[in-house]
Amino acid sequence: MTDAPTTFTGRRWHDMGGQLAGPVPTDEHDFALWEKRVDALLVITSSQGHFTVDGLRRVLEDMGEEAFETMTYYERWIASINQNLIEAGVYSTAELARKMSDIAARGPTYGEAASD
Amino acid sequence: MTERRFMRVRHDMPPGHVRTPAYLRGKTGWIERTLGPFPNPEERAYRHEGTPLPLMRVRFTMAEVWGEAAETPTDTIDAEIYAHWLEPAEAPHAP
Fold it and tell me: Residue B55 half-sphere exposure, CB side, CA atoms within 13 Å?
């Protein structure tokens, strides 16, 4: 759809099926503990009915191509899970802000210690 | 063999969360089987219950999808597409 008149129409950035692509990386890789926690958080919160995988995908797509290029897979996931939980009313942005401040106050090595 | 039911994928390009790949929009295939009904994921993405819809497994020829560029024109690809994206159609001219 190269003749699309505006960015509001045409193929969306994430809809890559059928486009030319390079070779598929087949390297195995391990997951960091925080990545496993993000995965677990999705399972827990979606199984509680706060949102569906469709909602996860919707926010990932709306984050746009720049996020796809600059954030890792699970960084994008936690951003999407967070937005879905706020939309569902599980917590407010103010509550999130206070919790983030509390955790930051524990110091930069707190997460590393908890990972061991 | 029963007669093929041809369907054309709507050539819509809306913003928002949709489940039909762009490269198949506007293409014609035939119903391989009908699945579901399943709640419409395009509604569930926005926190709605989701209208129950049939999900069609549609079979396209490579010639239909890629035209002259198809390396193996009579090979086929199946895609599962929700019923609201499909409209009854004539058989495409491509083999």
Answer: 15
Is pLDDT above 80 for B93? no
Measure the CA–CA gap between B47 and A84, rounded to whole angstroms: 9
**Contact A18/B22, CB-based, under 8 Å?**
yes
pTM greater than 0.90 (yes/no):
no
The ipTM, to two decimals, is 0.86
* CATH class label, B6-88: mainly beta
Cα separation, B76 vs B61, in Å, equals 4
For domain A33-115, the CATH class is: mainly alpha
Judged by CB atoms closer than 8 Å, whether chains meet at B42 and A54 is answered as: yes
Q: Strands of B86-88's sheet, edge to edge?
A: B76-82, B52-61, B28-39, B6-9, B86-88
